User: Fold this.
Amino acid sequence: VLGAGTTLTTNTCNIAFSNGIAGGQSLALNGGGVGSHTFSVAGTLAVNNLTVTATVGSTNNVLSVNTGGSQNWLVTGTNIGSLTGVAGVGGAFTFSNIAFLDGSSGNDNFILNGGTLGGGINGMAGTNSLTGNSVASNWGITGANTGTVTGIGSGFLNIQNLVGGNANNTFTFADGGSVTSINGGNLANTNTINYSAVTSAVT
Assistant:
């Protein structure tokens, strides 16, 4: 159970909550020093604001959030963003200097809202979606629910539904690549789907 305005900082290890967080207060999780940090939040939450920050200079930092429900991830800057819809978080849930995002056992919606990630996105379980930035974007579907897109350095996996932003999109399938659905985004976009590398029947 947290007291008011709790801050936890680590320089050498990861921070994980596997059985929830109680107390209804605000919590800041800080990863100090260089190297990589993994922040894992799971279980039943009862917090106000939740802030996850890794020190500038640390790399390949991971944020995993799994409270069992659906949640929305908004990437608004370089490795910066927020989550909404997380059960048990009454205020804002924000993160910074986080390159890799891991979703929950429920449905996750990842939205590039003017931001980029140096790492990647793993939707994990559930039925998940990824919405691209409002810039001309190249999507590569390289495997089952797996691929790359402009703005995500290491690509994505376990993403079933792809949504274009408010700009033109090119979706290119590798042989063996597949997703459940593609939405080109804004009706004013000029979108292209390229199946030229696919050797089997397209369904």
User: Anything to note?
Assistant: The first strand starts at residue 6 and ends at 10. The CA atoms of residues 31 and 81 lie 16 Å apart. Residues 1-5 have pLDDT under 50 and may be disordered. The chain is about 0% helix and 45% strand.
